Amino acid sequence: MQTALNTRYQQVEAIICDMDNTLFDFMAAKWEACRCVVDYLGIGDPEALCLQFLNGTHGFEDHRNIRDYLEGLDAYQPGTYEVCCRIYEGVKLDLIEPYPGVEETLRCLQNAGIRLAIATDAESVQANRRLTRAGLIDFFEVVVTPDVSGKRKPEPDSLLCAIRQLEAVPEEAMMVGDSPGRDIAPGRQLGMVTAFAAYGDWRQSRAGEIAADIILAEFSDILGHVGLPDR
What we know:
- By secondary structure, this protein is of the alpha/beta class.
- It has helices at residues 4-10, 26-41, 46-54, 64-72, 78-94, 102-111, 124-134, 146-149, 157-165, 180-190, 222-225; strands at residues 14-17, 115-119, 142-144, 173-177, 193-197, 214-216.
- The chain has 2 domains: 4-23 and 100-225, HAD superfamily/HAD-like (Rossmann fold); 27-94.
- It contains 11 helices and 6 strands.
């Protein structure tokens, strides 16, 4: 007999997806972009540059991280900085491609009448570029970013904004993301079904940190949880 929770999964009418490391391996693209910047410079360390983006001084994608890195190497020149930023953005975007099964799964969900949205902390320009590059943008009716909702995750504003634009309610919506704190926590706060994208968890979260209803080994696992046949 179905459990009450499994029955609830069958009632999901809308799915809100995080973007980076949920639909595609953004960290791998970011790492390679940092490596190419360091190769151009001929000095430095790719890991150090990647960590510069993660230290919280500026935004996760703010080019001022590259400036600070160059200054730390005593290698900052305006021209060098501009070239490094172009290399970083170009390589990163070129390497964006969906995880296996993402496109097929989104198509199945769309064909089943489940409405789809993105809630990401990337800015609108970056989000649209990545989704377009990945060939996924047409699957999503709504793309909510901090410049749309006014807040970054883990505040629930972006998720709630996406749900409202889809004319859904949290109790009949699912949040899918790779971050226990920034995706799963706000989803639970709103009363959504939550699905943790374990395949994209580059942070290597501990089991106790993951309070999701569902653990996804791959994106296509969603289908079995909303009453659709696996691909």
